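Second attempt. The first submission of Mobile element protein had a stray character pasted in from the spreadsheet, which I only caught after the job came back as garbage. Lesson logged: always re-copy from the clean sequence file. Corrected sequence (99 aa) follows.
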Amino acid sequence: MNKSFDGLAALVSDVIEQNPLSGKLFVFLNCRKDKLKIFYWDRNGFVIWYKRLDKGRFKFPKSDALSFSMTQEDLKLLLDGINLDKLKRFPELYYQAAL
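This time the job returned cleanly.
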């Protein structure tokens, strides 16, 4: 968890194989899951947002994948300490036309 701007940009580019200049938010979690960095490009420079929990751990969704996508709502819930694996939601519905 000691990488800064250039190190995180290299991780995004080389390991995750994404463009660090895309404007997407990239979330990094330490091994103990009590520290989190959000890294992104903001028009004219990189931004790192860092959060350390005094108690508890972040509850990341279980995944074997190196990276995965999450919604803005999921990120907010994660930062609020909600366990996304135990969250029950109504299924999202898709329709071709309205009545």
